[in-house]
Amino acid sequence: xxxxxxxxxxxxxxxxxxxxxxxxxxxxxxxxxxxxxxxxxxxxxxxxxxxxxxxxxxxxxxxxxxxxxxxxxxxxxxxxxxxxxxxxxxxxxxxxxxxxxxxxxxxxxxxxxxxxxxxxxxxxxxxxxxxxxxxxxxxxxxxxxxxxxxxxxxxxxxxxxxxxxxxxxxxxxxxxxxxxxxxxxxxxxxxxxxxxxxxxxxxxxxxxxxxxxxxxxxxxxxxxxxxxxxxxxxxxxxxxxxxxxxxxxxxxxxxxxxxxxxxxxxxxxxxxxxxxxxxxxxxxxxxxxxxxxxxxxxxxxxxxxxxxxxxxxx
Amino acid sequence: xxxxxxxxxxxxxxxxxxxxxxxxxxxxxxxxxxxxxxxxxxxxxxxxxxxxxxxxxxxxxxxxxxxxxxxxxxxxxxxxxxxxxxxxxxxxxxxxxxxxxxxxxxxxxxxxxxxxxxxxxxxxxxxxxxxxxxxxxxxxxxxxxxxxxxxxxxxxxxxxxxxxxxx
Amino acid sequence: xxxxxxxxxxxxxxxxxxxxxxxxxxxxxxxxxxxxxxxxxxxxxxxxxxxxxxxxxxxxxxxxxxxxxxxxxxxxxxxxxxxxxxxxxxxxxxxxxxxxxxxxxxxxxxxxxxxxxxxxxxxxxxxxxxxxxxxxxxxxxxxxxxxxxxxxxxxxxxxxxxxxxxxxxxxxxxxxxxxxxxxxxxxxxxxxxxxxxxxxxxxxxxxxxxxxxxxxxxxxxxxxxxxxxxxxxxxxxxxxxxxxxxxxxxxxxxxxxxxxxxxxxxxxxxxxxxxxxxxxxxxxxxxxxxxxxxxxxxxxxxxxxxxxxxxxxxxxxxxxxxxxxxxxxxxxxxxxxxxxxxxxxxxxxxxxxxxxxxxxxxxxxxxxxxxxxxxxxxxxxxxxxxxxxxxxxxxxxxxxxxxxxxxxxxxxxxxxxxxxxxxxxxxxxxxxxxxxxxxxxxxxxxxxxxxxxxxxxxxxxxxxxxxxxxxxxxxxxxxxxxxxxxxxxxxxxxx
Lengths: 314, 167, 495
Description:
The structure holds three protein chains of three kinds.
Chain A: H1 8-30, H2 32-55, H3 68-77, H4 87-98, H5 114-125, H6 127-131, H7 137-140, H8 156-159, H9 164-173, H10 187-204, H11 211-230, H12 238-243, H13 247-254, H14 265-285, H15 292-310
Helix pairs in contact in A: 1-2, 1-3, 1-10, 2-3, 2-4, 3-4, 3-5, 4-5, 5-15, 10-13, 11-13, 11-14, 14-15
Chain B: H1 2-24, H2 31-39, H3 53-61, H4 74-85, E1 103-107, H5 117-121, E2 127-128, E3 136-137, E4 157-161
Antiparallel strand pairs in B: 1-4, 2-3
Helix pairs in contact in B: 2-3
Chain C: E1 32-36, E2 38-39, E3 43-44, E4 54-55, E5 60-62, E6 70-71, E7 76-82, E8 89-94, H1 114-119, H2 132-142, E9 146-150, H3 160-183, E10 187-193, H4 197-209, E11 215-220, H5 229-237, E12 252-256, H6 257-269, E13 275-281, E14 289-294, H7 299-305, E15 313-317, E16 324-325, E17 339-344, H8 359-363, H9 370-378, H10 382-387, H11 398-402, H12 409-494
Parallel strand pairs in C: 9-10, 9-12, 10-11, 13-17
Antiparallel strand pairs in C: 1-8, 2-3, 4-7, 5-6, 7-8, 13-14, 15-16, 15-17
Helix pairs in contact in C: 3-4, 3-6, 9-12
């Protein structure tokens, strides 16, 4: 009688299941590098968690049972490029778990999304390694053993390929004009579509509510439309903005993390709108090509204030 | 030259605004004393060695008293004061008495001789009676301060635990 | 069947009702009965008998006309009177004769006062135990248009209402119409859950055999907590009650069907409330059943009667959702004990941290955010919890049922609610004490000033006399001098 229809670890299992399409799609495009990340990040995260839990006087495996660490590590692994030095996912996951989660008191206590803490730390510490995206695995001509060789000796000039957002930035800096992007040709768009599929599953299973993803995507699309209509040669189309970078993933999997998001429905809408606007602002006028991680972290900071603002109303 | 002038003008404007604000939002009395007074339990028992809650609040605001001198406020009272005044939480000073459940004075009406001494001692006028007539305590108004106990010449006042609010 | 709208939130639970049996089982007579003197809502019935008094079944033993009465369930002797705050009771030693107070003819609603009902010992029998007379007094001021008879036993297991309907639908209908007339309502609806088909059939038949035109029967969908007063009114009227709004504010008076039955009984022949139906169930109860128990029956007698021999059991008062553990087996059946659960001692599943998933907010029928309340109460932030509308929590336990982290939320909220009440009470008292203290200070100051003024006046008065004295002295001296002068001149003359 007193057992709920689903327990916390089951919720997390569903999230993992919802990550599957995007993970498969990434592997399809980017090959074994993704698999390696997907192995290294969780291993590092779980090991760190066990160590910190022991130091905090908790049973080392207590948080393994709820799967939340696994979710954070996998989201991180799917955020970083497929070919990176092997220590990168290890360090990222360690920062995510130790700094992003355990230092605040573990499950349910972290003000920031742990995966994004880890990702942002990597992004500012290793800007080169986190922004070099290879072309599709089949076109690189690399073998699996190349993943274990020295990262710097890889033929980056031959195998790197700028993402849509990167390419746009470069064009603008060079004083050129933007041309419509061929999204179908981009692996990122296909992966974004896979995230959308996973997000729909989460919505259907009512693991997440529609408020944050809807308002976030709406805000990005709205901002992009306004500026696109003003000057299409300087600002990319809304479709490009939504379907490139980590926008869809952020909308359904990162921003919806209930621990670091507000609880009130109206606060959630404001939260989503804020992230959407920030994503667009950082992408268009900031120095980073994508802004999902920073946008989410900034709005995480505002979540308690939003909850305070809307408390007592529903 | 123009920059300096602009700056001076801005300074003047800001100063004026501040002055306006200080006039507009001026608070009457000492707001800190009121805030402290709001935390104190208002038993007016004088166990803190001040003649009431407000005088103690004034002493606290002036930094003349410790925050652990109020037994009726208990540990939670000390914590609240510590938070408001930015001081360390310290245990209650037992010299002023120990924290206990709220009590209530009851006059043994058979023994009371009607001397009115307790009526004068009660800080909240919770004792009714007249000279040479029996006195009684208004239970709802009694704060349990025990100030009526010492003056009673026949020791007819007893403190009993007050029945708290029922859920 | 009338279609009704549903309230928001809630949880779908399997009814798992205990089968009704006729005739209703009755507990064999017990040697001792401990009649409780406390009612919910903090009322305490003053004892009106002393140790050694002989009492009859149905005799008033506690409570004056301003407090809910308590009556002896059997004839016998008063063995002890305990007035300790939480265990107040009167213990009756039965003499086995089962003598009762004489019956009186039926009374008409117009000839009955609120105090009569209070003396009859009626309280809400659906679990909350609120004094019926107090509710009707409030109803008298609000003039309800509709009377809702609540027969929605939304909590699993509890089957008192179904048993009552099966046994005595006639008295229920009589009581319902009597209460309708008493409260001045135009219409009376008896509300059932849509799974209780048998009860619906019995009531419909009984209603068609009677001539109560103002009574109808309706159903609400099976969804916990449909039997909660606020949710029931929402389901029947179609609009939710606002926070702080009571059913009476919408012109609806809600009464539990058990209460109505007891009222009907009393109106017919003057029998006060001295017994109630109790469902005894649980996984350590071999023969789940609903039976008549005199108020004051020791719970141990019930455990023995149903044949529960398991040693390590936990006893609960109430259903599986809102039920509270009974501290000891010496507890007695009270007027609001619908259910006694005998469960094999179970280790409580360990709660893990809240991940704010929001499942509880979906389930909450009052639109609260239990995850926020939990957050605030974890930090002992009572004002914060109040701002998140903690006082509006109805403690239905829906959040407990859905929490994936197995956090005992409603328990925390219950504690928070009473802490908040205590705090408000203390603050109110402090404010009152402050006003009185300030008034006294002002008065003393005034007195002091008056005294000072009087002193000054008196001083001024004495000063005047001093002056006068000085003047008089001066004048006297002058006179003396003059006299002297005159004397000398006279003497001079004389010389």
